[in-house]
Protein: Glycosyl transferase CAP10 domain-containing protein
Amino acid sequence: MGLSPKNKARKPSHLLPCVSALAAFSITALLLYKVDDFASQTKTVAGHNLEPTPWHLFPPKTFSEQSRQARAYKIIHCSYLACHSGTDTNTIPERHRTHPSQPSKKCPAFFRWIHHDLEPWAKTGISPAHLAESQKFAAFRIVIVSGKLYVDLYYTCVQSRMMFTIWGLLQLLKRHPGMVPDVDMMFDCMDRPRINVTEHESMPLPLFRYCTNEDHYDIPFPDWSFWGWPETNLRPWDEEFRDIKQGSQRTSWSKKSPRAYWKGNPDVGSPVRVELQNCNHSTMWGVQIMRQDWEEEARIGYEQSKLSNQCNYQYKIYAEGYAWSVSLKYILSCGSLALIISPDYEDFFSRGLIPKKNYWPVSVNDLCPSLKHAVDWGNKHPSEAKAIGKEGQKLMETLSMDRVYDYMFHLITEYSKLQHFRPVPPSSAQELCPESLICFADGKQRESLEQSTVLPSKEPPCTLQPADSNLIKSLIQQKKKIIKDVEDMKKLKAQRRSN
Structure:
């Protein structure tokens, strides 16, 4: 007996699975879109979603992630999860937050300049209005509260400057846990100072950067290369100094070439470096110039640019680049007589340089004859030239990373005393920790960061000298007088020769 049409067996419907699959796909696509959109709006210390500084343009950064999804994952993981995935390194038991009671060493003499650099705000203090105006000139903002570091990003910086500068601050917090005061600071990480004294006299703006001069209020801060500069194959400072000093001892002074040596990149918008190329004649001027090609150096593994192999000359030349140059500390480290060409800028430690004590001043005017005069003087006074070179090396030896961290500590501490408000991270700021920077770093960057990792110090920071504006003024005048004396000596020699 047949079944009626009503009782025929129905085939299972495929509509529901199709709808479910479509819904799941839509939700996944929506989530991926939202994640990608969120990541595309997240600014990072590596430079994601940030434009170059408009006051110093450079090519936009490229990143190694192979897909948008990989980039989005990395941005979100490193920005929001890395600092909370492990042990909080800033959580230090209270009993470990102070150093044992012991007398600390006196800071190097150039630390006194901390008071000089902060003097523009000694009477007025620093208000939120100061920072609001400073932000117009800043690449990023650092806020430290209760031992945690927050960063508000405005522009990216060339290469890995931002990452390594912030790494240095994070290491300072690890080195002196519980001691770094709450603070709110604006940073620029490009070369030239921008807060002109004349333009901002009515309201000096506090802006930290790597160099300054007497025409600007910018506050000098240790540059990124103290923790390494992977783009030029430079390791953290303590390692580089040790190797350079060892390299300087391979050849005795008398066997080193009695010429002035410079190796670098002249194509950086530096008139003095361009002019220096005209002095490249060992017989006429006693000068040897080598052009640095960083792309070629990277290709051959940096074998020709090892700084420890460049100490075979009795004289080494320092010429500023677009502004000051990180090369100064490496040149002084050789123990050769440093011939410093009339610098327009100074970094935090170069105020410890005294002409004819730890370097020889060279006038930018009449450059080639000025270099020849320096070489001729040194060749006629070899013991004095050697002693001055050694004093320059000694200055760099006092500039260990211990002292770099001490300088940072005292500068931040003295600056924080001038703030007339309680630092609070802005809503747009992100918390950063060592793990988040390691997360963003590529292979070479990570190697330098890990090599420069510190442990809590067993000793307190060195003791900062009190402010003494009269002493600073005296040092400035003394330095100018010695430089003039050297220039007069050169002119007198030229006059005698012409007669």
About this structure: The chain has a mean pLDDT of 91. The radius of gyration is 28 Å.
